Amino acid sequence: MKTKNTRGLSFLIAVIIILVFLGFIVVLNGQHYLLFSFICLLASCIPFYWRFENYDIQAREVVFLAVLATIASISRVPFSIIPSVQPTSFVIITTGVVMGPEAEFIVGSTSALVSNMFLGQGPWTPWQMFAWGMMGMVAGLLKDTRISENRYIMSEFGFVWGFIFGWIMDLWYLIAYIHPLSLSSFFITILGTVYFDLMHALSNVFFILLFYNSWRKIIRRFKVKYGLLK
Fold first, then answer.
1. Are the C-beta atoms of residues 19 and 44 closer than 8 Å to each other?
2. Residue 33: is its pLDDT beyond 50?
3. What average pLDDT does this structure show over 106-119?
4. Quick one: which of 118, 132, 130 has its CA closest to 26?
């Protein structure tokens, strides 16, 4: 019970820190976004560091998470020419249900920062880090559940998160660029991006239905073979 409580506290602290610095980005009109991106990245590591204090984690586990983050990042680059098709989300969701919430919170947030080194950094980067980090964390909460065994249910999960991701990014756009804020501007923004959110959602469904079971088995095989993050 104590471990679960400390785990929840670590997540809460990480999310609060990230939200505070997302607020700074808005107040400063998008300035110093790269600095805040790295701060958000460090904050996203808090749950994992907290785990270090309670479990015996070895270097190979850190390396494995780095490999997963690299795969998630690089998978985004070839598809960047197709609006909002994000294989990164598929990788984050699939690894999340195997590796758990702490690890996947780091993989998700790191993927945004690293992939934007190829695609372009901007004040949107910390928001993407937060959105993908939360996506990975929520997927990680499904670890060892019956839901995670069913690719059709997980495709529905991916579909919903395609829109949630887009709404988080819409929130950044609204706060940063729309003045004054109003219900009409909010709904206009949401409607204006619904096509891109739908593309993201449908691409999640496509990748999960085709590759979810095989990817999950491969990642789980590595996890069991090397005894990673039990």
1. no
2. yes
3. 86
4. 130
In contact, 60 and 16? CB cutoff 8 Å: no
CA distance 3 to 50: 10
* The pLDDT value given to residue 206: 96
Tokens 């919170």 map to which residue?
105
CB 74 within 8 A of CB 119: no
Tens digit of each residue's pLDDT (9 = 90 or more) over 144-182: 899 999 999 999 999 999 999 998 888 777 777 776 767
Nearest-angstrom CA–CA distance, 207 and 155 = 8
Phi first, then psi: give them for residue 82, nearest 5 degrees. Answer: -105, 115
Give the residue ranges of DSSP H helices in the chain. Answer: 2-27, 33-44, 46-54, 59-74, 87-99, 101-119, 125-140, 151-177, 183-192, 194-226
Position 225 scores a pLDDT of 76
Measured distance CA(40)–CA(56) in Å, rounded: 25
CA 33 – CA 16 distance, rounded (Å): 17
